[in-house]
Automatic annotation (TrEMBL):
Lineage: Bacteria, Bacillati, Actinomycetota, Actinomycetes, Micrococcales
Catalytic activity: alpha-D-galactose 1-phosphate + UDP-alpha-D-glucose = alpha-D-glucose 1-phosphate + UDP-alpha-D-galactose
Record-annotated Galactose-1-phosphate uridyl transferase N-terminal domain positions: 92-223
UniProt organism field: Cryobacterium psychrophilum
Region of interest called Disordered, as start-end residue ranges on this chain: 41-66
Cofactor: Zn(2+)
Gene: galT
Gene3D superfamilies hit by this protein: HIT-like (3.30.428.10)
Name this protein carries in UniProt: Galactose-1-phosphate uridylyltransferase
Similarity remark: Belongs to the galactose-1-phosphate uridylyltransferase type 1 family.
The keyword Amino-acid biosynthesis is assigned to this record: no
Enzyme class: transferase
PANTHER family (alphabetical): GALACTOSE-1-PHOSPHATE URIDYLYLTRANSFERASE (PTHR11943)
Length: 389
């Protein structure tokens, strides 16, 4: 089925849903949205339990402050200080609810998506001081503050207490990708949202506070600083920037995997000891624009990439898997959907720390040549494939 954009003014690409993946929409006790995505052929009943917890008032939405030296906005989300830290399995807030553990998800599930209770960007509850659009946010001044209006969602990949995207079956990986695509479409149509960002943080070395396999989706009221840098390069280079990058990488020795629809590679100027990018082989601004066939292949290739990264060493590799998407209303013909997986792990027992040059000046010094890194990751992907065969 084709779901048209909710608002023609947003001009978002129509979304084609996979009808084999059922959706069940519910509300949590405090009114937050919860959506179940069922694997094709799931054994789960379509009937789901209601959230029987006593409703609590939602915490005040965070405030963001502008840095006048850069024009960037910093969201001060103090409620996040109280979030759960590495709980035991029987108190996992992302596990299906039990009488002993009244969690965020009332029923058993395959994949579940819900609004974050203490988000970095959230609804305009009582404070009328919302951003007044991109022109307002682009102005520079002293002690400027706005409500961090946006939306943050948690994407639970599995009801299991531990794991990551790499530990999922191909079928479950495909269901997660379907959730990313549909939520990108829905969030892009919300008023005031300028960019949607799905990502997964994996490993305590990255700062993960829950071992449960999950990711998040942030919806920002502005175009992020990293994307603004990409827009600047696009305007200076020309509209073929992403196509030319892909052609250059496909002709190099840095390719990790290449399929009909996607190519994964170590970038020419990789910053991190482990860094893999993935691009679609055609222009796609975001997940919502993908076809079913593109999502099918991605479930296989992306999972292989992450399993290979885990196979580099004898223990799982910490990483950030970041899906960069075009802004909702601009540069959608030029900026291409792009995965960037980065890990600070530079040896079995060593991490790369961002010290003076990187952290203070943004001037990176690499520890490993990208070509050597690509050879290492390709070999690890082969080992992981062989172990699974």
């Amino acid at each position: 089925m084709t779901i048209p954009p909710q608002s023609a003014a947003r001009a978002v690409t129509p979304f084609v849903a996979d009808e084999a993946i059922a959706r069940h929409r519910h509300s949590l006790a405090d009114g937050r949205d919860l959506i179940y995505f069922d694997d094709p052929g799931t054994n789960l009943s379509p009937e789901r339990s209601i959230d029987t917890r006593t409703p609590e008032a939602r915490p005040e939405t965070a405030r963001m402050r502008q840095d006048p030296l850069t024009g960037e906005w910093v969201s001060i989300a103090s409620n996040r200080q109280n979030r759960v830290f590495l709980p035991p399995a029987h108190l996992d807030p992302l596990a299906p609810s039990t009488p002993e553990n009244p969690s965020e998800i009332p029923s058993n599930y395959d994949v579940a998506v819900f609004e974050n209770k203490s988000p970095s960007f959230g609804p305009l509850l009582t404070d009328a001081d919302a951003p007044l659009g991109l022109d307002d946010l682009a102005s520079i001044g002293l002690e400027r503050s706005r409500t961090s209006v946006g939306r943050c969602e948690v994407v639970c990949f599995s009801p299991e207490h531990e794991g990551s995207f790499a530990s999922l079956s191909v079928t479950r990986a495909r269901t997660v990708i379907e959730a990313w695509a549909e939520r990108t479409h829905a969030l892009s149509n919300l008023p005031g949202i300028e960019q949607v960002f799905p990502f997964e943080n994996r490993g305590e070395a990255i700062g993960v506070t829950l071992r449960h396999p999950h990711g998040q989706i942030y919806s920002y009221p502005y175009v992020t600083p990293r994307t603004l840098r990409v827009i600047d390069s696009l305007e200076r280079y020309g509209p073929t920037l992403f196509a030319d990058i892909l052609a250059s990488e496909q002709a190099s020795e840095r390719v990790i995997l290449q399929g009909e629809h996607w190519t994964a590679f170590v970038p020419f100027a990789a910053r991190w000891p482990v860094e893999v990018h993935m691009l679609p082989n055609r222009q796609l601004p975001d997940f919502a624009a993908t076809t079913l066939a593109e999502r099918d292949e991605l479930a296989v290739l992306y999972r292989r990439v992450l399993r290979g990264i885990d196979a580099i060493y004898s223990t799982p590799t910490p990483y950030i898997a970041a899906w960069h998407q075009a802004p909702v209303t601009a540069h959608r013909d030029g900026i291409r959907l792009m995965l960037q997986v980065t890990s600070p792990r530079r040896a079995e027992d060593k991490l790369k720390y961002l010290a003076g040059s990187e952290a203070a000046m943004g001037a990176w010094i690499g520890d490993v040549t990208p070509e050597n890194a690509a050879r290492t990751i390709r070999a690890a992907v082969d080992r992981a494939d062989a172990e699974e065969a």
